Amino acid sequence: MKQRIKRIDKNKSSKSLTKIIIIKVFPVIVFLVAVFLLVPYGSMYFQNNKVANVNTKAEAILFYNANCSHCQKIYPKIFWHNVLNFKNESKQIQTINVQNTNNKHYLAEFAIQATPTFMKTTNTNQRLVSTNNQQIKKFIKGGH
pTM to 2 decimals? Predict the structure, then answer.
């Protein structure tokens, strides 16, 4: 009796793995990257369109204009900061889109001159107009 040894073709196995990665894994990665990049922008344009009042329990407030290029640069970072601190309201940064007509009264009420403006909820005179991550972190943590 002859025994047959079945050879495993390494090229065929490698091609199957590549095909699986391209067909199943790659679309998932593309989807996750798209969500990571697009969700903050969706939030920026559609979420903060009518803010009833200032949340005094939040750590700070970000007044922004959805069409401002500086605001578009910083908003995703604030969005993900809020997601990561979802259960801790005192670490949240409330976001108010002052471009929306429902929120324009905040410009006069808090004398907002430029966007993005960060304002402490405990002291409305404490403000920062910046897109610099280090300055923002320092301001949020309690300094100027």
Answer: 0.73
